[in-house]
Amino acid sequence: MTSIKPEGTGPLTPGIGEPVVVLKDVNKHFGELHVLRDINLSVAKGEVVVVLGPSGSGKSTLIRTINRLETIDSGSIAVDGKQLPSEGKELAQLRAEVGMVFQSFNLFAHRSILENVTLGPIKVRKAGKADAETQAMKLLKRVGVADQAKKYPAQLSGGQQQRVAIARALAMNPKVMLFDEPTSALDPEMVQEVLDVMINLAGQGMTMIVVTHEMGFARKAANRVVFMSEGQIVEEGDPKTFFTAPKSDRARDFLSKIL
Ligand code: ADP
Ligand code: MG
Fold first, then answer.
1. Does residue 4 sit within a domain?
2. Residues, CB within 5 angstroms of ligand 2 (ion)
3. Which ligand 1 atom sits closest to the C-alpha of 211?
4. pLDDT (tens digit, 9 = 90+) per residue, 30-85?
């Protein structure tokens, strides 16, 4: 496999491969608000990118554009070498390549934990029920909630629900996993169990883009930190450099408030 260094990124960790997600000159407005400004970002196979920035800087919008939960006004986004189609069956197929985990777990309330994980593979991937269930049980085991399979989401703790949400996303065998503040809605004692699952996933080579304020996760698992402010990528670099020697005033100001 050839290894191509994504444009504009720092040194790559050995073993990191070709670009999986490539955004070029992406712009987006919400009415008058220019929420994404000339975003260029390339995320390589196996890379873990943590997106940081003040509230309202465009982090959620950025990752939501990657599976077209938001449209863009100009520029291009490719996932696994394919331009993002705007609608239809192609979009559904491409969306299946992109796993997404939200702040609010978004599990199907009236489906069991097991069904939450098997539904996507059965409906979108046309998997057989038995195969989907075998695979789902493996994933639930991997995130440590296999014993909860028959329960319903409301019967689980927030941390357990979020781990199910991760298993559900993984069941589609995605090329990249997007996380939007996955631990922000959790009680403090449940944050680490979710971060541990994410750290494991990163260690197993999953390509991940993670919006989080958990600096411990960024230090431990990120290959690269991307800092956003007012819709722009202001600065990026390896976590150690970013945290100890941020280059921009805006990053220094942000870090002084959160660290
Ligand atoms: P972050 O995730 O960094 O806090 P967001 O991407 O959620 O930032 O939001 C960026 C800006 O876009 C904010 O000013 C927010 O109020 C605005 N915004 C987000 N979603 C919408 C929307 N659907 N309609 C209008 N404005 C929005
Ligand atoms: Mg957000």
1. no
2. 60
3. 2
4. 999 999 999 999 999 999 999 999 999 999 999 999 988 999 999 999 999 888 77
Residue 136 CA, ligand 1 centroid: distance in Å = 34
Note down the domain range covering 183: 19-257
- Compute the distance from residue 153 Cα to the ligand 2 centre, in Å: 24
Count of structural domains, the chain: 1
Closest ligand, as measured to the CA of 180: 2
Q: The CATH number of the domain where 166 resides is what? A: 3.40.50.300
Atom of ligand 1 nearest to the CA of 181: 2
Tens of pLDDT along 103-124? 998 999 999 999 999 999 999 8
pLDDT for 145 beyond 90: yes
CA quadruple 162, 258, 69, 198: dihedral, nearest 10: -40
How close are the terminal C-alpha atoms of the chain, in Å?
40
- ipTM of the complex as predicted: 0.98
Is 48 inside any structural domain? yes
The closest residue, in CA terms, to atom 26 on ligand 1 is 30
Model pTM score: 0.92
* Cα separation, 193 vs 180, whole angstroms: 17
